[in-house]
Amino acid sequence: xxxxxxxxxxxxxxxxxxxxxxxxxxxxxxxxxxxxxxxxxxxxxxxxxxxxxxxxxxxxxxxxxxxxxxxxxxxxxxxxxxxxxxxxxxxxxxxxxxxxxxxxxxxxxxxxxxxxxxxxxxxxxxxxxxxxxxxxxxxxxxxxxxxxxxxxxxxxxxxxxxxxxxxxxxxxxxxxxxxxxxxxxxxxxxxxxxxxxxxxxxxxxxxxxxxxx
Length: 213
Fold this sequence. Notes:
Blueprint: E1 2-4, E2 6-13, E3 19-24, E4 27-33, E5 40-47, E6 54-56, E7 58-62, E8 79-83, E9 91-93, E10 97-99, E11 103-106, E12 114-118, E13 124-131, E14 133-140, E15 146-151, E16 154-160, E17 169-176, E18 183-191, E19 204-206, E20 208-212
Antiparallel strand pairs: 1-6, 2-5, 2-8, 3-4, 3-7, 9-20, 10-13, 11-12, 12-19, 13-18, 14-17, 14-20, 15-16, 15-18
């Protein structure tokens, strides 16, 4: 999901790539073909055009089909470029790739009514993004624990989502990268299964990420 008035899908073109169906807000929009004789990186392979300035959802469905001359049906996605009328206002995204065991929590107080959490040591959530700053949005509560944060595979900080208050607080800033060089980056959250003594659990939660272009 994202907030803005335009989205551009960035990926590569090559001689072994296939086709993908694109849906915006649940409606089919286009089928894109990433086949090319020569390999080309960071290509704009889909442009939504102008949308209403609000929250939207983009879905990509691999078709498993290709041109006759393509050597494969693989699809490659690099990043999403989001535009907003109020740039450089951050846009909010989800969709981190997880490893290990993560459960879903459904609560209307989360960004889109749900978030993911884990207390499994070394469980991770990784997001590729294009921008100059990223903020991890999550919750704080009495049963939360600690996680390490990596930017571009380099350790940056250990964060703690515990808070003493009885009430759980949603959509909190858990980590802010500060200024990064504009371009492609990754952020990774790694569960430590560590906590403060007074915390009732080891859970780490990720709701969404705010990205500034």
